[in-house]
Amino acid sequence: MAVIGIMSAMHEELAAVLAHMPDEQRVSVAGRDFFVGHWHGHALVAVLSRIGKVAAATTATVLLERFGVDQLVFTGVAGGLGADVRVGDVVVATKCVQHDMDASPLFAPHEVPLYGRAFFDTDLPLSVQLAQASEAVLQHAEQHLGQAAMAEFALKAPQVHQGLVLSGDRFVSTSAESQALRQRFPAAMAVEMEGAAVAQVCFDFGVPFAALRTISDRADDTAHADFNQFIGAVASRYSLAILSGWLGQTRPVKA
Length: 255
Ligand code: ADE
Prior knowledge:
Structural class: alpha/beta
Shape: globular
Helix content: 25-40%
CATH topology of the domain at 75-249: Rossmann fold
Bound molecules: adenine
Number of helices: 8
Strand content: 25-35%
Largest sheet: 5 strands, mixed, barrel
CATH class of the domain at 75-249: Alpha Beta
């Protein structure tokens, strides 16, 4: 059976997934705990991604090389950059780029040296499945989050977006920086700290990759407010419901 790798950016997200993998076995590699088990009849390996591009790339490499995962799905939070990308929305990445990669003038700005490209595509069928599962959850957001959380974070009719996601080794927490990113990448939907690195590792191994991010902030001067509370009350509930919906709808594939 094909093995699915799930990389969660947050402890709460991973804990929610593990609560549905009663047979999980912990295997420690490179200081990380990988949880091998089953959910909805699929063979899974779930792991905390760790934060930042290098740490996430190491985690992804172990998932692919040691655990032989056949597809990799990343879940976490991100700062919204697109004009209509609001807190509580979900962004499913179609492309990823490292916004802090710059080897110019030797290479074009943002191009990853020796790859001849700046942008790494996510897997289309996998991303479509995750976007559909996200739509199904967000249409009934109140059912998943409860009225109190919807009110606390002022969530109204949350939306699913698909598009470009930026990654870099910095938490973007000023309006000046998010505005500069918008100018450099007008199509950018969101910014986070791992996706493009994991996309590059999956590209190297020829393994399908998809990433979904709940928008926790607008990458502006208030970006840090209520961050931990939001993760517990909104982001980890969304990722659990989306992953569960997706796996429940998808037949395990023969490897
Ligand atoms: N993850 C969540 N919000 C973020 C932000 N504003 N910048 C980078 N990564 C994030």
